[in-house]
Every structure is written in structure tokens, then in C-alpha cells.
Write a structure and sequence with these properties.
elongated, about 650 residues, 34 helices, mainly alpha
Amino acid sequence: MPFTSPQRQSGILWRLIAGVVLGIALFALWLGLSRTSTNSETSISSVARAEKQRALEAEDQRLKALKEIKLKEVEAKILQWPEDDQTNGEALYKQGELFLTGHGVPQDEMMARVWFEKAAFEGSDAAQYSLGVMYHKGKATIKSLTKARRWYMRATSQGNQDARKALGALNLEALALYQKDADAGDDDAQVKLGLIYQGAFGVPRDYKLALKWFQKAADQGNVSAFSMVSASYVSGLGTAQDIPLGIEWLNRAVQANDPAAMRGMGLLYRMRYMSDTGILSKLGLKGGREPALAREWFLKAAEKGDDQARLYLGVIYLEGTEVAKDYAAARHWLEKAALQSQPAAQANMGFLYENGYDVKQDFRRAYVWYKRAAALQDCFAQEKLGELYYYGLGVKRDYALAIRYFEKALSNPVPNQGAVANAQWHMGAAYYVATGVPRDYAKAFELFKKSADTGLSGAQAWLGDCFYHGYGTEKDRPKALHWYGKAAEQGDARGQQRLGMMFYDGDSVPQDMNKARELLEKASAQDDVEAHYTLGYMYANAEGVAKDYDKALYYWEKSAAKNFGSAQMMLGWLYYQEDNTFLDYKMARNWLEKAAENEMDGAMCMMGYLYEEGKGVAQDYAKAREWYEKAATHGNADAKANLKRLVGEPAE
């Protein structure tokens, strides 16, 4: 692999939360915005609503039963597909299109819906848009503007312009739909109207007007509205920030046994908002930012079925920054949230399987969880899918798909700092070594710099390479030394190996073989092939250490096992030497052939020696000449001289 293992960024979830908590829309989502949805959203009187609801529930049950039948048919068919196609969102979407239009198959809207759902969860924006249309128009499902909006927003986040237009039209439709009922005092319509003014798609965003409608609903005792009003005051959007008042409103929702509000309490404790002893004493709440208090509230919410709280608990136990790491507890909570389509929980389930935490390591299952989360636009999952495709872990190696997922992570509208830094690093390396994209050192340098500036050690080491060689920037060895040093300080094997070589060569620093050896040994302990090789060379040639062919053999074998050509050639050389106990021409031939396959011209020349002298092989001048010619075409001067001698030409 061209990279050291990407690093998990500790605490990223909490930094993300802290960064967006002042955005009222996301805070409102945390407090349970989705509870305001109903199956039917037509403007009808409260008396007629009950009758209408009963009829809708009966129809909903009929449609669910029909969907289960169609689902079994679809899943049976998918199992007959090649494994990679089973998770191909576009292929799944095309099947849905056939049933929707009746092209080549009987028209069947429910069958189309099932195919679209499969495709949507595999990331097809076209399928997400099509599902939005079906919920918007009530095709093969109960009409739901809330569910239509959800699918339109997912498609819009992937750049689907049809979905963006539909979302704007839907909000205008919903605005007219809810306005009459809201004016008549319907608290549910008032909450929905507030959310529309908060959302901005197709309707001018107006936080003040949103708060007005939330307040009207709250004054009627609407529990969801309590949370919305709380979020407005805590965030200071639509009104002057008033955290004590926000806490008071949130506590009213808690007293109504609302799990999302309990989660909100946990977030307020975590984000330093629970410092006003007056309001806390009045409400009977504890003060301070003790993480245990936040966990208490998350646990209360999680036990009542709040999936976001389950996610938070899972991450707390996974990262172990405030409690001892407990992978079993992490898996318990993450799996509960993941099974309810919580994307960050699904991404973290992928992380558990990728690393074998409380489960058997399984890259394929990691892939499945990451794919589900990526379909819901989780940035971390998108980046991890890029890694799996790049390295061929759990899937067939595919550089084009890897690049595609890295780019998705980089353009994600809700970025994850660690995932973005990793994507920048991998994309930079792709441009550096020309895997999946044409070589472009300027782009590589730019991406490495962005990633390195976040503190990612892998990118820092590669940025050092750019400065060392002058790739994509001016050659600057002192800057290379600086970035190698920063990477090495964090334990990055590449950084340790590169810094060790600068001390070995006395390049921009005084030569220091002891320092070089220490750094190379640290890199070698992480299985760095170049560090293995150089340590072997040092012991073979008594450079800063006593000559020790046994140790040279040890390190070169570790490097050669990773198919490092230079180490393979040196093993061939070691077995060829007559002044040590390792003399073995057959072993020499074995390693030299491997090195020659890796285009090592020195090994090709030595193969020529073996055939010319008949050592370990039958003497064969024709084969000797063939090997010398191969080496000579690579510019090997010894091979050129030997070739002339072999054919009887005078040496130059």
C-alpha cells in the first residue's frame, strides 16, 4: 500500500456537534424535528381528521402488506446478481424505472417503489428523487410531504437539480397547505409552518417568523414546539440569545417525557450551556459541565428509543476519551441506532467491522455498513468507502470508484474534519503516484498541504516528499525536514523513515547515524519496507553499527517479503558472497530473479554473472548475454561492459 493506515480522528463527533450547535436548523433536528410528521398532510378540520386518519391507517396497512410481498420478490432477484451489482445503486434504480414506466415488464408502481428504496439506500440520487415524487404524489404509498421532503433533501445534497426544484415547489405547496390551519389555531400546522420558514428551500428563510409559529404552538402545549422554541433561544436565531429561557423551555419538553428533549439536555451539558445556577436551581437541575451528567441524559433518551442519543453513547464508548473504551457497549448502542437508518451510527458500525472491535474483522461487512451510511450522505462513510476501493479491502480494487468516493467526501455539505483530511491525503497520493487520475504534482501538493495543516501525520510525511523532491513546489530540504519531523513526532512510519534517512545522509542536518538508526528502527517496528532495507544495509556495511550479516539478513528478508526490489537484490548479493557463511548460489538466483521482476537492473546484471560463471545454474553464455542485455537497456554500466567482453568487443 502507498499509505500508512489512515488515522481515526478522536473526538470528531463532538467537535462537529459543537461547531454546528449554533445553527438552529440542525439543533432542531437533534431535538426531534421528525416527530412532527404525520401520514397524511391535507388541510382538513380536526373532526374530519380522525375519520380520515382511520381510513389512511387502513390503507397504509394494505400498502405495507403489498410492499412486503414485492420486497421478497425483489430481494430474491437481487441475490441472483453478481455480488458487486447487488449494491450498485444505479443498476437497482434502472430496475425501478422499468416497473414505473412499464418498459418490458408489467407496470407496477409498488414494485418500482421497492426497487427505488433499494437503490436510494445504495446512494442513487435519481432513486432518492423518485421516492420523493412518489411520496409527494401518493404513488404506491400514503401521501406525505414530510417524507417527500426528506427524500428530496437527500437527493439535493448529492447535487440533483430536479430534486432541488421539487423541494422548493413542495415547500411552497406546504406553506399554502399549513397556513390556513395554522391561522385557525392548529398547533401541529403551526410547528410545520415554522419548520418551513426555517428550512429556506423555495421559501425565504425567516427565523423570526419561524419562532412566532413555534411559540404559538408551544403556548397550546405542543411538546415538539417546546423544543423548537428552546433551540431558538439557545441559538439566538430569530430572537436575542437567552440560554436560561431556552433551558426552561427544553425542561418543559423533558417534563412531558420527550426523549429528544432529554438528549438536548445532554448536549447542553456537554456544550457548556449549563452554567446559570439560578435557572438550574429553579428547575431542579444540576450545574456544571461534568461529562457524566451529559451521559445520564443521553442514557435516559436512548432507553426511550432516541437513536441520536444511542449514537452519542456508542461514540463515547468507542472513542474512550471520557470513559474507558468499551467496544461491546459501543456496538450495543451503535447497532440499535444503525438499524433505524442513523447514518453516523451505520458508519461507526462499519468502523467496528473494519477494525475487528468486539466483532470478527470483516471488510465486506464494513463495506456494507459504510455503503448504507454513504447513501445517506455520511462524510466519514464516503471517505472510508474510498479507502476500501483503493486498497481492495472487502471489494475488488477500483481506483476510479475510490476517487469518486473521496470526491464525495470532499464536497459533502456536512463535512467531517477527519474524513475530509483523510480524503485530501488519499487524493493527494493518487495524484502523486497516478492511481485513478493522471499524475499532477501541483494538485498533490495542494491537497497534502490542506490535510497536513489539520495535523494529519500521513499527509505531513507526503508533503515532506513534495518539498524534498520539488514536486508541485520549489525544492526545499529544510521544509521537508520540518514536515517529516512533524509526522515522525506523531509516530508516522513514513515520516520516521524519511527523517531517519536525512540524518543518515546528513541532508540539511548534521549526519547522525545513531539518530538515523533510532528513527529507522521505529519505522521498521511499523513494518516500513524502506526502513527494513536501510537497517539491513547499515548492518551489512557497518554504518553506525557493528557489521552483522545476521541482522542484515533479518531486515532484508522482512523488506523482501513485502516485494521491495532493492532488498531482494541485496539478499541475492548476500547469498552470492564467498566471504560469509550465507554462500548459496541457488538462493542468490531465487532472490535475484524476484528483484529482476521488479526492474532492478543490478539484479539483472548479477543474473548474467551466475549464468556466465555457471554458479547455481548450468553455465550458459546465451542466457548470460540475455540478462546483460536486459540490464544494459536499463542503463547498467557494468552490464554494458560485461556484454562487450562476452561478445569479444574491446571495453571502452
